[in-house]
Structures are given as C-alpha cells and as structure tokens.
Specification:
12 strands; 7-stranded mixed beta sheet; 27% strand; 2 domains; homodimer; 313 residues; Ribosomal Protein S5, domain 2
C-alpha cells in the first residue's frame, strides 16, 4: 500500500481587479490530505476538521477525491482505488479557496505516489475537476496559487499557462470573515450577481488598476500594490452588496493605514494588505464595526506564502 | 529674445490591449519645435515639413502653439508672445502620435526657456490642451511616452501619474502605413467605431493580455510582450475594419516570426515587434500584401527610444 500526506494553503483570488486571473497563497490555514493507493476495495473519503459535516463523502462529489481520481484517469491507472483522509483546516465557503486547496492536494498526492507522471498544468486540469464539483465552475484562480505558492497570474486559459510572481514581503494580510452565509451555492450566487457587460471606460479603469497591481508586485511597491487592490471597478461594486458594511470596512481600513482592501475571492471574507505589525490593530477596528452592527466576525493575520502544496510526511 | 529648439518623438499608443493607458516612444521620426519668447508682437506659427499644409497656422488651433500658450497661462506669464517654427517630421493622422509630439515639444520648449517652473505632470496637462485641438479628446497615451521616452503606463488620470518602464531592447519595431485616409477627423472616427460596452468575459481576456504585456515588459520577455500585444480582444477587432487586409497582415507577420502585431494608436498604421534584423524582410512581405491588393503603403523600421522630448540647441 502506497501512502502520502500533503498540505495545500488557503488562497485569496482576484486581489481586486484581477478577477479570474490572479491569486495569492497564504501561509495558513492549510488543508491536509492523506492518500492511500490500493489495487482493491472501493474509493473512500473521510473528512475531519472545520465544518467537516458540510463536506460531501461521496467520492464523486468530494473535491479532493474527484481531483485525485482525475489523476488516475489521466495516467490510465483507474485500477487503483483511493482511500483518503481529508482534514479541513480552511473553512469552506468563506472565499479562501477551500475547495481549490483540497482539490490540488488530492491531485498532487496521487501524482506524487505515482512518481510524478503529470506536469503542473495537467495537475491543474485535474484539480479543476474537483473545483467544478464544489463550485459549479472550473476556475483555477484559487488552484494555481495553492499549487505554486507566491502569487500566480493565469497567462493563458487554453492551454493553461501560469506565471508565478514573487510573494509580497514586509506586509501582513488581514482577513476578516463576517459570520454570514451567502448560501450553500455561494460561488454561483456571487457569480450571478456580476454584470454581464461593462462600459468601455470602466474596462479601461479596471485595466489601469490591474496595471498598478502587477507593476506594484514586480517593483515590490506596497503602495502601488494597494492602489491596484483597492481599484476594482467591476467585481467589487457588484459583490459588495453581499457583504455587510463593506464600504465602511474598506474606508476604515484605508484610513487606518492599510495599503489596499478588497473582497477575498467570491467573499464573504474581505482582506487588507497592511504594514507589518498593523494587522491586529486594524483587525480589531474592523471587527468592532461589524460587532456594532450586530454581525459577528473573525479576523486572522497572514503572510503571503512562498510555498504552495507540499508533502508533509 | 529667448529661444530654444527641442524635438519630440513619434509614439505608438495602446500596444494592443493597453488602450488609453500605454505608449512607446520611437527613435524616429521626431518633430522639431523652435520657440522664441518675446514681450511684444503677436503669437505666430510657421510650419514646414511633412504634410505641412494640413497643419493649422491659427495659434488657437495649432497643437504645439496651444500647448505652449497653456504653459504661459499656467505660470501666469501671458504677457509673453510666442514665435514658433514647427518642423513636422512625424506624418499627421497616421497613428504615430504626431500631434502629441508637437504638443509636448511646444510645452516643453516654453517651460525650458522659463527655467522649468512646471513639473512633468503639469507639462502633460498643457500638452493635453494641444492634443485636444488636434484630436478632439485630451488623451495622454501618446504624450506621456513623447515626454519620458521608453514605455509609459498611465497609473492615474486624475491626478495624472505616469510610470515609466524601460524600453524594449533587442527587437525592432516595424511600422507599416497604408496610404489611406480614414478621414480628417480620424481619431474621432476611430473612437466612435469602438463598442460602448464589452462582455465581462471579454474584459477578463483583455486584462489577461494586458497582464502578459506588462509582465513581459518587466521581465524583458519578447515572446510574452508579443503575446500581449497581439491579444487585443476589444479595440483591434473594432478598428481592424478601417484598415485594409488587417488580419492578412497580422497573420503573415506572426507566421514570419513577429513577436506581436497590432494597430498603432488609432491607426491606420500597424506595427509589429520583430527580432533584430528581421524588420526589412517582414516589412517587404507586408508591403507586398497591400500592393497585391492595390493599396500603396510605406514601412519603416524603428527602435523603442530611451529618450523622450529633448533640447537640440
């Protein structure tokens, strides 16, 4: 029996104007996936950890398992059966790439056991199968940073081509998760609320913000990165409606020294890029704003991780 | 009597997906502006050079003069009168930033004579006044590279904020100008033909191309720059209709080794980024395509200039 244990990080997708294109790996939390390959028996998933009861156990509906099985299919080793322990440390449906991390962890684990027959792009394709069962749409903006770490830009969808950018250093990432439920099909709802078309002028403004983000990342200019993150003219205005007191949170974060602020992935978590050591102070301010409005939340302080998915034992 | 002589370069705006945001300075041609400041007499413009008879002599309609007078106004020295010799080496209405170069040259010349009271951003504002009388809209995507050289990204419109990127090295820029007239109000026509709205998916594709362009420029990756240039999903498809055999030209350029191909500014010139030494061969091919279709054209081979506007004597 061949076995392996891997972890994959939570991620923040979009980073403001980079909708469907950009994502960032966080240092924590990380999902853990333990995989055993056998030539007999049945596929089986066990799930433990955060909100474990929300995660499907059906091997055809569990993201990590679907991704893992996609690897077996691609390398034509479907005679193998998979026993999987999925330990959820990334809360599902918060906008932190939970299903993306599980998916890439599942795919990566099986690929490692088999001696790495698949290239990175193929692993992403397999993980997309897992993401599809969880979110309804096979986007890779959370999966790519969970695989490569740092910050990833999707240079091409077909064929998949990823450019990895160096992680942001010397700054903290404050994540605030309001305790609300957008709905069980959260990603679908957050996608349906988006405009179908945008004005040409708005597109130019969006590209300008994206330019600031990318140039900022490459020049390691935190103020410019923040200007980019905060300058989403299309996705954020639509999705802000799903997040209580969104603009209060954003304004107060920026007034208090955050470089940039936007929605994490499809939300409802929001995030701020803040100077080192400032995450706790700004986190308390944002927590209080929601608390005063009768909404509980949690905040956590992160770094942009160098590492993506990796073997732990 | 105080006098100066400055030159400003032709420019290529947009570079494919960077509509209204990106521009590149060429090594040649360069407009020449000679300015004499006097405290008596009247404003007067003389124009010589290419298509000189198309350039207005009215001081309120000539781009270089309007920009120069805007400097005097901004520094409250409207008692000065301007005598100007404008020598056009950049052909007007070809999509090579002709009026933008004249405008920044006029503004820069007067600012120099006065001991540089205005900062770069203010000079751009003055040059925009000149561009407005020539093109009807005060865009700075041609003016900024004519001022700074290299490649410029407009990080913010209001306040104006420009980020200068290093010029592309080790490649030639082939410019092909079909001898057609889109109309005397060419920029207006080229703007009116654009879609008012774009699909969200198209916007994402456009941002992806823009990301490839910017990351390519910063990593000095000619193939990635070219992928970005060639990936305009919004402006090019609309304006290609104004340019004869556009897609034949594009396909043949790319098949023959060009890194990227798109429309220069508002057209009708097109440009290709090509490997060093390949400009002439590819230029002949493109020239022949138009010639076979009964359309005369000119091609010229350039480099991305380090220099923007500068004093020559």
């Amino acid at each position: 029996m061949l076995s392996i244990r891997v972890t994959a990080p939570a991620t923040i997708a979009n980073l403001g104007p980079g909708f469907d294109l950009i994502g960032m790996a966080l240092d924590k939390p990380r999902d853990i996936v333990e995989v055993f390959l056998e030539e007999k028996g049945e596929d089986e998933v066990k799930v433990s950890g955060l909100q474990a009861s929300d995660i499907p156990l059906d091997p055809n509906k569990n993201s990590a398992m679907v991704a893992a099985k996609a690897v077996l299919k691609k390398v034509k080793k479907e005679n193998f059966k998979i026993k999987m322990n999925l330990i959820k440390e990334i809360p599902p449906r918060r906008g932190l790439g939970s299903s993306g991390a599980s998916s890439i962890a599942g795919a990566y684990a099986v690929n490692c056991i088999l001696g790495n027959p698949l290239k990175s792009e193929e692993l992403l394709e397999c993980a997309m199968e897992g993401e599809k069962v969880a979110c309804g749409s096979p986007h890779i903006d959370n999966i790519a940073p969970a695989l490569f770490g740092g910050i990833t830009f999707i240079s091409s969808f077909n064929p998949i081509r990823i450019i990895r950018l160096e992680p942001i250093k010397n700054a903290e990432i404050l994540v605030l998760s309001p305790k609300i439920e957008i709905g069980i099909e959260k990603t679908k709802i957050a996608r349906e609320i988006l405009p179908k078309e945008v004005m040409l002028k708005t597109m130019v403004n969006q590209i300008q913000s994206f330019g600031n983000l990318i140039i900022g990342l490459m020049k390691k200019d935190l103020n410019l990165i923040g200007l980019g993150i905060s300058g989403d003219h299309v996705i954020e205005p639509a999705r802000a409606k799903l997040i209580p007191r969104f603009y209060d949170l954003k304004n107060r974060a920026l007034e208090n020294g955050a470089y940039g602020f936007s929605i994490s992935g499809a939300g409802p978590s929001v995030f701020a890029l803040v100077p080192k050591g400032e995450g706790k102070r700004i986190g308390e301010i944002l927590y209080s704003i929601l608390r005063e409005n009768g909404i509980l939340s949690e905040y956590s302080i992160h770094e942009n991780s160098e590492d993506g998915v990796k073997i732990v034992s």
